């Protein structure tokens, strides 16, 4: 603002700022890079949190909140008449059927409402759902592999005993498939379903979506679903826990982003302040000359602020633009106008505050200088004068170390900024190793790389009665494989149906044995281990009883024939009790309940063999032969399933979003550290130009000058590496300790040092330091001593 009778100097200040920007191109580039990198990391972290939150909400919004199990056709119509329901989806699982063509089809029936609710997992891309007996909905991947030229209206042959003859393609669905196992999805019509021998009129699943549920408390909606189940005498209601979880904002992600922004801001502040301080020191005489011709302190401040603002705006725009582009590439479905605009606004504020705080001290230095002080100004004018030791030998190494130790404030700021990247990289890389897919797979495969599961399309009890395939004959056949040393029966199981207050729940009940008793006891989170023959354990979060399960609840338990009353004595944590894990990554057949052998014998007295899972122990040297032999044995029996640790690791890597984000973040921090090193090294060499010219004028050779510069730079790098390890290692061990307890259900996994990541980081920053030091000296050699001295005047 210009006051009355005051000269308007805005134009002069603007021109001075422009000239300074033109004369300090190297400084400008370094500041822009520092600001852009900080803006990029902060904005990308925020956009990642926003995108993941939005994708989670989009995945569950307008889908379903509850599922009624084993619903009859009559009850389906009753549910459709409930005015509070927006839609009711019908779903019937037919099962997996093998074709003579070498693929396995996963068959089911679904109505239009169900397909709409499953749109995020299975999207209808062409045509319609099948209506007639000879119509079928096929997978897009299957069609491209077996009938690449076919489309809607064309005829295909499945060559499956349950689905003989030709079928007309009514529609094509984009559904997930397992090409490694040739497993593909198919949808049949209701007319086809009702004519199948295995069809039961009360075998439907009803998926329901409540109107205005987004604005309704979770307890209210669950109470309504329970009330509908009681009113229509439905066997069981299961709540869609992911819906209620994902509809609530996970503030922990945003707290992590804030913490990361604080650390990045701290590093950017150190770098930008160092660059501007060196720039102000170089131009201090120019500011003194401006003061002699009448420039005020405020005008000097305005000149520096205009430079700051220009560089800050350019850096912020570059960083934000790159982060938005990368976020749209990585998370195309996570775009949200309000979320993106909010994140961009917060990033702009963050960058503005960071650069304002960073440039505050250099601005004060430029403003308070007087013309006389500017002439006498020396960068090291506040350092103590030491008495020279006459017997001290000056070498490139000693001079480099003297430069390293001369200004402890600058040395500390450089080492601190470099150490931040090392500490962050060490901590995040260590956390990645804790939850690496291989380590998680080993957690669920403690005895080897292979598990054999009982897997049948028939009712589990019928399979057991007809003769459990996991018998002595199969055991002898597997033990005969060269390299197999033992077989451990880790699970004995039966499918159960439990009734509590007219609510029915289903799942797998595992037998409590002497081998797994200790493991289950450690997994107990509430209550006690069974003391009576009719005491059982149930998994925490079991939601089929219409209310939270707790010790003391009494239920009626059945394995398919008769039922007996039992009491829940305790609750166990599934993440700790790894012995109950199922054959799939989603754990659909995991053990939800534990009961003693007495319960199994009482409910199924005619069955002797309850084996459900075998762990194969083998010699690692014979792994290839063992895997091939197991695959050939399992292929001959359709009621068995071979689960591999490698498949589980691949599934974890695909599903574990946090692991992938942390890996990506570790590489960003790696890049941040390298660019940070480049900025600090170049800015430090700029400050040494005049000294280097003086040393060259008194006879220091180029090799000696390069050696001196290299040793000084190595001092910064080696100190930052030592501090990164000294501070980062305890933090990493503590963080991994807490993280492993959370992931592995209380188990503390041994700490693994990220040797590969840290070794690459150390080698790169040492190599970059050597390269930059030599490169800057070679650039100085291109100028004569007189030119260098004049450039510093």
Automatic annotation (TrEMBL):
<feature type="domain" description="ABC3 transporter permease C-terminal">
    <location>
        <begin position="664"/>
        <end position="784"/>
    </location>
</feature>
<comment type="similarity">
    <text>Belongs to the ABC-4 integral membrane protein family.</text>
</comment>
<feature type="transmembrane region" description="Helical">
    <location>
        <begin position="311"/>
        <end position="331"/>
    </location>
</feature>
<dbReference type="Pfam" id="PF02687">
    <property type="entry name" value="FtsX"/>
</dbReference>
<feature type="transmembrane region" description="Helical">
    <location>
        <begin position="337"/>
        <end position="359"/>
    </location>
</feature>
<protein>
    <submittedName>
        <fullName>ABC transporter permease</fullName>
    </submittedName>
</protein>
<keyword id="KW-1133">Transmembrane helix</keyword>
<keyword id="KW-1003">Cell membrane</keyword>
<dbReference type="GO" id="GO:0022857">
    <property type="term" value="F:transmembrane transporter activity"/>
</dbReference>
<feature type="transmembrane region" description="Helical">
    <location>
        <begin position="254"/>
        <end position="276"/>
    </location>
</feature>
<feature type="domain" description="ABC3 transporter permease C-terminal">
    <location>
        <begin position="260"/>
        <end position="366"/>
    </location>
</feature>
<dbReference type="InterPro" id="IPR003838">
    <property type="entry name" value="ABC3_permease_C"/>
</dbReference>
<keyword id="KW-0812">Transmembrane</keyword>
<feature type="transmembrane region" description="Helical">
    <location>
        <begin position="411"/>
        <end position="431"/>
    </location>
</feature>
<feature type="transmembrane region" description="Helical">
    <location>
        <begin position="29"/>
        <end position="52"/>
    </location>
</feature>
<feature type="transmembrane region" description="Helical">
    <location>
        <begin position="758"/>
        <end position="777"/>
    </location>
</feature>
<dbReference type="InterPro" id="IPR050250">
    <property type="entry name" value="Macrolide_Exporter_MacB"/>
</dbReference>
<feature type="transmembrane region" description="Helical">
    <location>
        <begin position="664"/>
        <end position="682"/>
    </location>
</feature>
<keyword id="KW-0472">Membrane</keyword>
<feature type="transmembrane region" description="Helical">
    <location>
        <begin position="713"/>
        <end position="735"/>
    </location>
</feature>
<dbReference type="GO" id="GO:0005886">
    <property type="term" value="C:plasma membrane"/>
</dbReference>
């Amino acid at each position: 603002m210009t006051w009355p009778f005051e000269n308007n100097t805005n134009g002069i200040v603007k021109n001075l700022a422009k000239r300074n920007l033109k004369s300090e191109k190297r400084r400008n580039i370094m500041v822009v890079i520092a600001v852009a990198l900080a803006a990029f990391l902060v904005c990308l972290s925020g956009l990642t949190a926003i995108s993941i939150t939005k994708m989670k909400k989009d995945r569950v919004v307008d889908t379903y909140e509850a599922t009624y199990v084993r619903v009859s056709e009559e009850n389906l119509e009753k549910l459709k008449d409930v005015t509070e329901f927006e839609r009711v989806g019908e779903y019937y699982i037919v099962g997996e059927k093998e074709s003579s063509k070498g693929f396995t089809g996963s068959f089911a029936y679904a109505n239009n409402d169900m397909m709409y609710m499953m749109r995020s997992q299975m999207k209808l891309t062409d045509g319609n759902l099948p209506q007639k007996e000879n119509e079928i909905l096929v997978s897009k991947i299957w069609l491209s592999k077996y009938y690449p030229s076919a489309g809607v209206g064309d005829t295909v042959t499945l060559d499956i005993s349950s689905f003989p003859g030709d079928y007309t393609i009514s529609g094509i669905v984009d559904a997930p498939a397992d090409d490694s196992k040739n497993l593909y999805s198919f949808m049949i019509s209701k007319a086809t379903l009702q004519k199948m021998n295995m069809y039961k009129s009360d075998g439907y699943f009803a998926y329901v979506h409540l109107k205005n549920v987004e604005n309704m408390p979770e307890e209210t909606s669950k109470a309504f679903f329970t009330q509908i189940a009681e009113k229509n005498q439905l066997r069981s209601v299961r709540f869609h826990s992911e819906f209620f979880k994902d509809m609530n904002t996970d503030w922990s992600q945003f707290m992590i982003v804030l913490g990361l922004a604080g650390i990045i801001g701290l590093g950017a502040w150190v770098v930008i302040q160092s660059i501007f301080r060196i720039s102000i020191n170089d131009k201090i005489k120019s500011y003194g000359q401006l003061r002699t011709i009448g420039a005020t302190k405020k005008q000097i401040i305005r000149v520096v602020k205009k430079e700051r603002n220009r560089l800050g705006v350019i850096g912020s725009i570059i960083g934000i633009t790159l982060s938005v582009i990368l976020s749209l590439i990585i998370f195309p479905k996570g775009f949200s106008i309000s979320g993106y605009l909010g994140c961009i606004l917060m990033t702009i504020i963050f960058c503005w505050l960071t650069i304002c705080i960073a440039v505050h001290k250099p601005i004060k230095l430029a403003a308070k200088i007087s013309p006389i002080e500017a002439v006498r100004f020396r960068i090291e004018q506040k350092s103590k004068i030491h008495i020279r030791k006459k017997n001290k030998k000056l070498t490139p190494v000693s001079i480099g170390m003297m430069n390293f130790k001369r200004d402890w404030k600058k040395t500390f700021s450089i080492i601190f900024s470099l150490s931040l990247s090392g500490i962050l990289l060490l901590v995040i890389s260590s956390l990645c190793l804790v939850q690496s897919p291989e380590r998680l797979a080993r957690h669920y495969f403690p005895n080897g790389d292979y598990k054999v599961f009982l897997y049948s399309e028939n009712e589990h009890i019928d399979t057991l009665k007809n003769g459990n395939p996991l018998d002595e004959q199969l055991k002898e056949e597997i033990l005969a494989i060269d390299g197999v040393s033992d077989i451990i029966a880790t699970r004995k199981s039966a499918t159960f149906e439990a009734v509590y207050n007219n609510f029915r729940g289903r799942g797998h009940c595992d037998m409590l044995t002497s081998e797994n008793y200790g493991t289950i006891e450690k997994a107990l989170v509430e209550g006690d281990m069974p003391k009576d023959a009719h005491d059982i354990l149930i998994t925490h979060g079991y939601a089929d009883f219409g209310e939270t399960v707790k010790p003391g609840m009494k239920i009626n338990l059945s394995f398919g024939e008769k039922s007996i009353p039992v009491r829940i004595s305790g609750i166990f944590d599934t993440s700790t009790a790894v012995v109950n894990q199922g054959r799939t990554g989603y754990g659909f057949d995991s053990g939800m309940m534990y009961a003693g052998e007495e319960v199994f014998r009482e409910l199924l007295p005619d069955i002797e063999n309850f084996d459900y899972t075998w762990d194969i122990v083998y010699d690692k040297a014979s792994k290839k032969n063992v895997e091939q032999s197991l695959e050939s044995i399992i292929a001959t029996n359709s009621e068995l399933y071979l689960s591999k640790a490698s498949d589980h690791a691949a599934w974890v890597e695909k599903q574990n979003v946090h692991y992938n984000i942390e890996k990506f973040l570790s590489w960003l921090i790696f890049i941040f550290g390298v660019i940070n090193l480049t900025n600090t090294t170049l800015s430090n060499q700029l400050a040494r130009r005049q000294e280097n010219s003086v040393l060259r004028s008194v006879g220091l050779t180029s090799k000696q000058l390069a050696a001196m510069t290299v040793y000084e730079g190595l001092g910064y790098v080696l100190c930052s590496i030592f501090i990164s390890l000294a501070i980062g290692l305890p933090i990493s061990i503590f963080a991994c300790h807490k993280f492993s307890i959370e992931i592995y259900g209380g188990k503390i996994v041994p700490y693994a040092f990220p040797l590969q990541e840290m070794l690459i980081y150390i080698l790169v920053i040492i190599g970059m330091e050597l390269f930059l030091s030599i490169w800057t000296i070679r650039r100085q050699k291109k100028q004569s001593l007189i030119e260098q001295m004049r450039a510093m005047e």
